[in-house]
């Protein structure tokens, strides 16, 4: 691990000020991604901005027809929240399957979404539910946020503050986990919302993406059978020692069917 300065601001304004003053500084929330990178000397920030002391970044609340979740809210808090279970049961179920007990008690929603790991769970929910990412500067639609592997629309020094989830009519999530790492090999989050049906696929490709053919099929017929015959193209999907692109393409259809069944 390389040397770095350490700061623990008490407000979003103070955190943004520190990040803006030093382009090589990095924010940390749960530390499930950054800490391993530091230990293996894969990242060399000049300073670490510890966000854990910022109370305004925590919490879950319902505002009319949407659920607002603070960036520092931990996975276990989402999974156990009565508010989330009531409004979006699929989101609570998703959070309860992330990693293991230790990861769920340390990792945060904002950290996961900001990092945009291809195998992360939350990006699928954010995209399928047509959520809005709220930062210290602006509001970003889910369709405009995820740009590529480990890449988002966040600008240098910009801090994710909260995520607003419209409450859907129905939603479901299913994934195939790598048995060793528990990372998603392919997952599908389906949602029937006021704006229409949305299907988001994670794990299979370099970045979470919408499966529009499945969306059209489910709009006409909301049932697992509607997506059963839809084949996901293997082009540009991930391929590694854990599974080929063709295998992941097959899993997309299987997980989509299970997600629709889970949604009811």
Topology (elements, then pairings):
Elements: E1 5-7, H1 12-21, E2 25-28, H2 34-39, E3 47-50, E4 60-63, E5 66-70, H3 75-80, H4 82-87, H5 89-95, H6 101-104, H7 109-115, H8 122-128, E6 132-135, E7 139-141, H9 142-145, E8 146-148, E9 151-152, E10 160-166, E11 170-177, E12 184-193, E13 196-202, E14 209-210, H10 212-220, H11 224-228, H12 245-263
Parallel strand pairs: 1-3, 2-3
Antiparallel strand pairs: 4-5, 5-10, 6-7, 6-10, 8-9, 11-12, 12-13, 13-14
Write a structural description.
- The protein is of the alpha+beta class.
- Among the domains are: 50 residues, Uridine Diphospho-n-acetylenolpyruvylglucosamine Reductase, domain 2; 94 residues, CO dehydrogenase flavoprotein, C-terminal domain (Enolase-like, domain 1).
- The chain contains twelve helices and 14 strands.
- Strands 4-5-10-6-7 form a five-stranded antiparallel beta sheet. A four-stranded antiparallel beta sheet has the order 11-12-13-14, with helices on both faces.
- Strand 12 and strand 13 form a beta hairpin.
- It is globular.
- The model has no long low-confidence stretch (mean pLDDT 96).
């Amino acid at each position: 691990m390389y040397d770095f300065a350490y700061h623990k601001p008490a407000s979003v304004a103070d955190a943004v000020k520190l990040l803006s003053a030093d382009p090589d500084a990095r924010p940390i929330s749960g530390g499930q991604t950054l800490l391993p990178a530091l230990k293996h000397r894969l990242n060399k920030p000049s300073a670490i901005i510890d966000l854990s002391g910022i109370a305004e970044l925590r919490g879950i609340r319902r505002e009319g027809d949407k659920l607002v979740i603070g960036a520092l809210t931990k996975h276990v808090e989402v999974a156990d929240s009565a508010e989330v279970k009531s409004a979006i049961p699929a989101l609570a179920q998703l959070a309860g399957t992330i990693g293991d007990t230790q990861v769920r008690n340390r990792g945060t929603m904002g950290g996961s979404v900001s990092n945009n790991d291809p195998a992360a769970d939350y990006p699928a929910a954010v995209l399928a539910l047509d959520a809005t990412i709220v930062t210290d500067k602006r509001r970003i639609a889910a369709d405009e946020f995820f740009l590529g592997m480990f890449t988002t629309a966040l600008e240098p020094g910009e801090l994710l503050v909260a995520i607003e989830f419209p409450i859907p009519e129905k939603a479901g999530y299913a994934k195939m986990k790598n048995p060793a790492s528990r990372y998603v090999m392919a997952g599908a989050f389906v949602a029937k919302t006021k704006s229409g049906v949305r299907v988001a696929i994670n794990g299979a490709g370099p970045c979470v993406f919408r499966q529009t053919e499945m969306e059209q099929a489910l709009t006409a017929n909301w049932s697992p059978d509607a997506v059963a015959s839809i084949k996901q193209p293997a082009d540009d999907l991930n391929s590694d020692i854990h599974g080929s692109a063709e295998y992941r393409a097959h899993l997309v259809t299987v997980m989509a069917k299970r997600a629709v069944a889970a949604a009811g």
